[in-house]
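Sequence, please.
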């Protein structure tokens, strides 16, 4: 979860320790009789590392600590690893920090530093999307008697459980933290705000069973907030009922006023809005799906709705510029669209003087974009990055990659590889396929190392002078497969992965492997990011999806994600219009968790899903 509360958690545990010459003496003492590096040399190394830290040369200091760790044992090694991790973190290299910390033995640290070691290891695990590793690290912490340390532990535990898809445990940890901080009003409010952000962003809410009134109140409040995205008219009455049911709840101490003000801002639309879509031309069907999603959100709003004028861009840059000029002349106060890349390029080249939310992303550098120009779309690159995070969260870090041999595949592979590398993972091998291919033997044999295995067998057979009974053996360092392909091609990939000796390897992909309503048992076990409203079984989100399914049966299955794009775009509009810093905290839409990235590019994080019985299911519901 990326928020100011994640930043707060990063700062909770300070890894800077004051050693100086005193620290050198301590290190010399603890290595007696067991270290590889002599004490005098250790003193020199420590002094050098501390000088580098004092100069702000944290990366160089981390290298020095790492070399000491590699040549030491016991407490010396543990302290050196902890120091290296802290310095890499200070240098801004979280992947290197995690690599340095992952071999840390918390019990080997001096007793006075074991709590620091466990909390640091947990925090770095969370920062690199490894919640299960964070929970293991927290279990290594000694009994904490200091209130500040207890609060730190509970904060990290709450975040780790939420990130691991265990919202009930996360909620309990942060409720306990709120009780611990009850005598400190400001810290208690900050805890409630952190808890609230995690509840809003959690793909699933816990059952109220087993919770006391405080926990039940948080769950009920989160349900109201989620329902308001699809049914904003119900918000006021639901909030009144909640306040009557939960008087004195921690959320009433300042947070309810913030929630009410935020919802009010989400309903304040400008008087006239222009909708720019390619209603004619090759993208007309996609435009109709987006428009239907926008109108679904429009009719679920308050009675006093703005006027909408629709303009046809034909999908071209020229058409978009013409439509934008017409919208300006008609007095539009906000522009929604265009939808195609060419249309977006045409619209932005005209330097709009009114706010605009484009429904696609511009290629290349967007640094020169106007401040009131926003971009939101269904980016496969964002989903590839999410898949990398989801794999790492499951404890997987070494992948092979297969994508089509075109620009689309190249962009997806690059996004996945970069994010996996940033998280401390590695792409071991990659291969490409034709987008319309039905047989992937060459690509799979390449990435699985089957060709090398066969060549070894042939050389051995030649030496022995006789054929061998032989089955190719894939390389054993692979932990998972990531692939992307057009839908029809993607359906053929998992069975062939199994056939070419990949049986049992976890498989990750992006959302175009799924189409709502289709039953595809061959995809069972494949992980992918899915829009929340495809996973919702009941409630307001599911009701909206089912209504659109009935109204547009002819193209729902093919264009379902575009209905969600239109729906969320309409609901985002007032947030972009009314807030000086919109989406600083993520909002949960029907297409995913939405937050503001660099240069006004809205980031969309879909929920972790997995194929079960031929259809999509939340990962939490399928975990072993």
């Amino acid at each position: 979860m990326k928020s100011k509360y994640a930043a707060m958690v990063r700062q909770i545990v300070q890894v800077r320790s004051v050693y100086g010459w005193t620290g050198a003496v301590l290190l010399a003492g603890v290595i007696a009789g067991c270290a590889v590096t002599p004490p005098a040399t250790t003193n020199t190394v420590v002094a050098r590392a501390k000088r580098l830290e004092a100069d702000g040369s944290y990366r160089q200091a981390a290298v020095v600590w790492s070399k000491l760790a590699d040549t030491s044992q016991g407490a010396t090694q543990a302290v050196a690893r902890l120091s290296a991790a802290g310095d890499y973190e200070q240098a801004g290299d979280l992947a290197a920090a995690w690599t340095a910390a992952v071999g840390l033995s918390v019990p080997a640290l001096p007793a006075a530093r074991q709590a620091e070691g466990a909390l640091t290891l947990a925090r770095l695990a969370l920062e690199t999307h490894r919640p299960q590793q964070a929970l293991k690290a927290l279990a290594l912490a000694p009994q904490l008697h200091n209130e500040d340390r207890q609060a730190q532990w509970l904060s990290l535990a709450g975040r780790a459980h939420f990130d691991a898809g265990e919202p009930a445990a996360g909620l309990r940890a942060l409720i306990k933290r709120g009780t611990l901080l009850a005598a400190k009003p400001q810290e208690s409010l900050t805890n409630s705000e952190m808890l609230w952000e995690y509840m809003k962003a959690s793909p699933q809410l816990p059952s109220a069973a087993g919770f006391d009134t405080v926990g039940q109140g948080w769950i009920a409040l989160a349900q109201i907030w989620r329902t308001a995205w699809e049914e904003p008219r119900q918000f006021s009455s639901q909030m009144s009922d909640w306040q009557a049911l939960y008087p004195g709840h921690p959320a009433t101490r300042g947070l309810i006023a913030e929630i009410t003000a935020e919802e009010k801002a989400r309903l304040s639309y400008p008087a006239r809005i222009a909708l720019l879509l390619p209603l004619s031309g090759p993208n007309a069907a996609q435009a109709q799906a987006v428009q239907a999603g926008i109108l679904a959100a429009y009719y679920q709003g308050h009675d006093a709705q703005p006027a909408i004028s629709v303009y046809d861009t034909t999908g071209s840059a020229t058409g978009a510029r013409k439509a934008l000029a017409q919208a300006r002349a008609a007095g539009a106060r906000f522009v929604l669209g265009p939808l195609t890349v060419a249309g977006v390029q045409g619209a932005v080249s005209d330097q709009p003087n009114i706010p605009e939310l484009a429904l696609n992303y511009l290629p290349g550098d967007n640094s020169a974009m106007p401040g009131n120009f926003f971009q939101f779309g269904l980016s496969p690159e964002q989903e590839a990055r999410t898949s990398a995070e989801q794999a790492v969260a499951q404890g997987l870090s070494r992948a092979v990659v297969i994508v089509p041999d075109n620009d689309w595949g190249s962009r997806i592979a690059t996004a996945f590889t970069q994010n996996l590398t940033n998280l401390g993972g590695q792409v071991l091998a990659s291969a490409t396929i034709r987008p319309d291919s039905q047989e992937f033997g060459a690509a799979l044999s390449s990435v699985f190392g089957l060709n090398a295995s066969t060549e070894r067998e042939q050389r051995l057979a030649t030496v022995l002078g006789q054929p061998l009974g032989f089955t190719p053996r894939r390389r054993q360092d692979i932990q998972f497969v990531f692939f992307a392909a057009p839908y029809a091609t993607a359906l053929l990939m998992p069975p062939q992965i199994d056939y070419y000796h990949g049986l049992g390897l976890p498989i990750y992909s992006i959302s175009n492997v799924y189409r709502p309503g289709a039953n595809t048992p061959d995809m069972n076990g494949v992980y992918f990011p899915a829009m929340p409203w495809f996973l919702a079984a009941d409630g307001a989100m599911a009701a909206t999806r089912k209504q659109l399914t009935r109204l547009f049966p002819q193209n729902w299955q093919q264009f379902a994600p575009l209905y969600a794009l239109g729906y969320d775009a309409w609901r985002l509009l007032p947030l972009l219009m009314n807030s000086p810093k919109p989406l600083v905290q993520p909002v949960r839409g029907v297409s995913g968790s939405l937050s503001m990235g660099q240069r006004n590019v809205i980031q969309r994080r879909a929920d972790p899903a997995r194929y079960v019985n031929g259809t999509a299911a939340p990962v939490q519901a399928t975990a072993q």
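The longest helix spans residues 556-578.
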